[in-house]
């Protein structure tokens, strides 16, 4: 699985908004978001257009304007952010895993693709931006991270 720069930047920016929300701070400008995580400003503007369309953030106008989360930090999953900026979690040649069809010896392959998508959902949809911000990850995510070979390249 390739995690795009769009997803990486979007999650990092959402963590900044979640942290601001936790501190009771007001809206955060694109300039502040970009400088806090050293993100490209123009790219971040495009990402925030997607986040706004997905109803994950709200923009506030004015001298002290910027962005805030559209709902509680605990109600926004990493999967929500991923889908907002990059589309579906898993695709096979532009198809959803359950839409694939193979014949002969490959006939069971759609089941594997569906399982891959389900495992991504388990991690990304069950982890909120708040979980990630605090490091209080769901048990199943902590178990995966703690697996002996989790951090080893293959």
Brief characterization of the structure:
By secondary structure, the protein is mainly alpha-helical. It is built from seven helices and two strands.
Protein architecture, described:
With 154 residues, the chain is mainly alpha-helical. The protein has one domain: Winged helix-like DNA-binding domain superfamily/Winged helix DNA-binding domain (Arc Repressor Mutant, subunit A, Orthogonal Bundle). It has seven helices and two strands. Strands 1-2 form a two-stranded antiparallel ribbon. β1 and β2 form a beta hairpin. The mean pLDDT is 93.
Quickly count the domains: 1
Uncertain regions: pLDDT < 50 for 5+ in a row? none
Percent strand equals 5-15%
| Corresponding CATH superfamily | Winged helix-like DNA-binding domain superfamily/Winged helix DNA-binding domain
* Strand element count: 2
* Global shape: globular
InterPro entries: Tscrpt_reg_Rrf2, WH-like_DNA-bd_sf, WH_DNA-bd_sf
Keywords: DNA-binding
Organism: Intrasporangium oryzae NRRL B-24470
GO molecular function: DNA binding; DNA-binding transcription factor activity
């Amino acid at each position: 699985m390739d995690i795009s720069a769009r997803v990486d930047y979007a999650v990092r920016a959402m963590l900044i908004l979640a942290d601001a929300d936790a501190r009771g701070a007001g809206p955060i400008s694109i300039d502040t978001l970009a400088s806090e995580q050293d993100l490209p400003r123009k790219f971040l503007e495009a990402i925030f257009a997607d986040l706004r369309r997905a109803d994950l953030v709200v923009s506030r106008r004015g001298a002290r304007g910027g962005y805030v989360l559209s709902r509680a930090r605990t109600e926004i999953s990493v999967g929500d952010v991923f889908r907002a900026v990059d589309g579906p979690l898993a695709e096979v040649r532009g198809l959803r895993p359950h839409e694939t069809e193979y014949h002969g010896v490959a006939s069971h392959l759609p089941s594997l693709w569906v399982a891959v998508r389900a495992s991504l959902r388990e991690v990304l949809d069950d982890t909120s931006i708040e979980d990630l911000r605090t490091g209080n990850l769901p048990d199943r995510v902590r178990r995966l991270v703690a697996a002996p070979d989790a951090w080893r390249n293959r």
